[in-house]
């Protein structure tokens, strides 16, 4: 009888220890991760690997990934936020992040900023002085062409240190048009709608000296979107279409995708995501050139998709641990090798077959480091971006430049007022 009682005591103690072990970490706590890349098997393979490696690297957390099509991702997040069903970890497009932080979808990201000091500026998402998101890559645009195209037309090949000036760029377009070899000397890509417009074209506005909104306060677009510099930009922008230098809003999407390779265009304004295809098509003849200096230095857009922690998660530290884990050079290099994305650090770039020193796409890393400008870091950007898109499309179609920009500035100002300044801290 004494032996039986002792066995029962030992069994009860063992069960209690097992239960305590589950509480103390033997069982991993689930973390949900939403990602925008459904339908991209190459990208999915890398994300899946990061998740598996993280789950196997420790015993506290277990990340479960759910992917969405990019076209419906933002709407899914907004719907989940309204229903109180946000995941623990969110994927967020860089320029959208301030809106989600302001709206209460995200909380500050608990990562030692000294550990990410060397990351490209466009990969770090700040709002009101706090880090909210971090990216595993950046994106950059360039003037893509062939060396033979420029040398045959006796056009100087620009460099980062000496980009084309406004007059030089205009002259190059006219020279290429006069050759009669191309449907258009330049392809700006107006077949692409939505975020492409502010990302790709607002740097031209900024290079003229204008902007979407006054960044000193983020309280008005007056004077920056409709001032003298902005009007000069608008007149130049309209001239590109009136002179037949680039296709307008009716551009065929197929021409956008293949027009440069097919010889319809001499130069294409496009991103590093297409660079691998251009290398395959043109080999050593391909050139990735900086934006022209339109008066106030060469500028391109910055910031792509980034990871953040939802405001409602009870597991903020676990979510931050996953994001920090994902920023290892080996994963960032994997994205650059597989898809052509820009590694956020020099060390990740150094081990990339496409971005290491002397590699054909290394130019994009320097473009991002030296020329990239964030889109306005404000919750109101999501509205201002759509206003700018419509204004640029209308001007391209022949609308009066000054009136169109005045109306755009008024629309942005009204939105800022309706939203009580979007919570900006004004010193």
TrEMBL record:
InterPro entries: SBP. Pfam families: SBP_bac_8. The keyword Repressor does not apply. Keywords: Signal, Transport. Residues 1-27 form the signal peptide. Belongs to the bacterial solute-binding protein 1 family. PANTHER family: MALTOSE-BINDING PERIPLASMIC PROTEIN, MALTOSE_MALTODEXTRIN-BINDING PERIPLASMIC PROTEIN. This is Extracellular solute-binding protein. It comes from Marinomonas rhodophyticola. The lineage of its organism: Bacteria, Pseudomonadati, Pseudomonadota, Gammaproteobacteria, Oceanospirillales.
